[in-house]
Amino acid sequence: MDGLDDVFGDLYANVDAVVLFSPSGSYYERFTDIEDLDLIVIGTENAVGAETFVELPLAFDDIRERIKFGLEGALEQDLIDGGDELLCATNTFSDSIDTLSRVRADAEAHTGIYDLFVKSRAEPEVVKAVLELAIELGKKGQKGKPVGALFVVGDAGKVMNKSRPLSYNPFEKSHVHVGDPIVNVMLKEFSRLDGAFVISDAGKIVSAYRYLEPSAEGVDIPKGLGARHMAGGAITRDTNAITIVLSESDGLVRAFKAGELILEVDPEAY
Amino acid sequence: MDWQTLIDEPAVIAAAVLALGIVVGYLVGRLNEELLTASGVPETVEGTPFERTAQSIGTSTVGIVARLSSWFIYGIAVLTAIHIAQLLDTDAFWLRVTEFIPQVFIAVLVLIIGFIVADKAELVVGEYLRGVKLPEVSVLPKLVKYTVLYVTLIIALGQIGVHVVALLILLTVYALGLVFVGSLAFKDFLVSSAAGIYLLLNQPYGIGDRIRIGEQTGIVQEVDLFVTKIEDESEEYIVPNRKVFEDGIVRIRE
């Protein structure tokens, strides 16, 4: 089997850093013993207590998405530089690490996905909770039927001033926050309502039934998306909020920030 | 040698009492164990050092408490048997012992409960403060633990009749100090949270309203228990809720 080292050695020759995706504790320990090795751990939580850690907001199923997002986070935190050769160790078929890929970090391919979570006004957990909710809603629909939904997250004060109520606000004088399981059920039920949900920086659900009134000029979103996406995209240009939109027609979950489409995920893939 | 004389024999009655005591003691022990298990005590004490120590010597907290009640009844049975058999002619001793034994029993029980409560409190406080990554904070759980242990000790000692006045005075001074320092340190928090409860319940202003508190004017972005966040064009003010009551709120309507 010695011959294999010669063939596959190219894969890890002269890499600038090794990137471990959600390693197990013992696996990580083995790497820390190696000297002169830049080690970066990426995962949904820092289970191994690594020093250099990049958090993934979702357990991306698609390995390319996972690496792309993780490396963008690492670039953002200045852990790596553009052009660095990286050896990414991740899992594809089993729960433990079984795949190696050599990736060149590309500083140009900045999509802002990482910013969406970490540099938004709203707290990362809130963004994560809303995104998970939208994905779940997209997967199951409401009582089996596909639904659309529009969540405006963060900068709620300004958003409220740039929108008007379509009907009585069911969340008036309530103190519910996203992330509670019971609240998710509630939001699912309310998702048949028209209009947007407004969620504050700290995750408080401020209102449902909001009609967003941003000025839509200069909003660059792909043609073919409907009024919900247009409204969702436009409000992020006028305020510092981000929006997470579940499309009723194609079932995709999209996130907008600063008037631009930043993330597009298929709920079925999770 | 017929039955009548046999039954009248003190030694026989003593033996009978002893046997009865052992049976009742065993049964009470078992009953206690069942009751404690049914009421979820094992889950509650799980993870405390006391339970771990108990586990390492091959028993459990429930086991120890149950065993204790058994031994308490065994002890009474033995003493009663001795008394009946008149092995020792010690009326005075007997009187003291009957008073003393329940007290010791309760004292031991209090100690066990105290240890568990102290450990549990340490765990809970430690868990709660885990988010605060400051090494100094790790003193707090210990402080809670030893406070509980100290109170337990006083109760236990008081139970078996040791004079605890000095310890009580120490406890009072400590508690007063804690209350005094605590209320001084958290005064603003307490006032703010009291105001915050009013704000959250009555919502005189909500997210999106334009208000003025003191000199700060802006749109409300967030209201929580302690602070209200208001924001104007470029600045975000985080105003303690007590200011809302000191300065009043101005709602601005165009």
UniProtKB/TrEMBL annotation, chain A:
Q: Which domain of life is it from?
A: Archaea
Which reactions are catalysed by this chain?
A: 2 ATP = 3',3'-c-di-AMP + 2 diphosphate
All copies of domain DAC, residue ranges? 110-267
Output one GO MF annotation: diadenylate cyclase activity
Q: Where is the signal peptide?
A: none
Give the family per the record: Belongs to the adenylate cyclase family. DacZ subfamily.
The name under which this protein is listed is Diadenylate cyclase
Organism, as annotated: Natronorubrum texcoconense
TrEMBL record, chain B:
User: Record's InterPro entries?
Assistant: LSM_dom_sf (IPR010920), MSC_TM_helix (IPR008910), MscS_archaea/bacteria_type (IPR045275), MscS_beta-dom_sf (IPR023408), MscS_channel_2nd (IPR006685)
Name the domain of life. Answer: Archaea
Q: Which UniProt keywords apply?
A: Membrane, Transmembrane, Transmembrane helix
Subcellular localization(s) per the UniProt record: Membrane
| Broad class of where this protein is predominantly found | membrane
* Annotated Pfam families: MS_channel_1st_1, MS_channel_2nd
SUPFAM superfamilies recorded: Sm-like ribonucleoproteins
Enumerate the transmembrane spans.
Answer: 12-29, 71-88, 100-118, 139-158, 164-186
Q: Which residues form the Mechanosensitive ion channel MscS domain?
A: 194-247
Q: What is this protein called?
A: Conserved TM helix
Q: Which organism is it from?
A: Natronorubrum texcoconense
**Biological classification of the source:** Archaea, Methanobacteriati, Methanobacteriota, Stenosarchaea group, Halobacteria
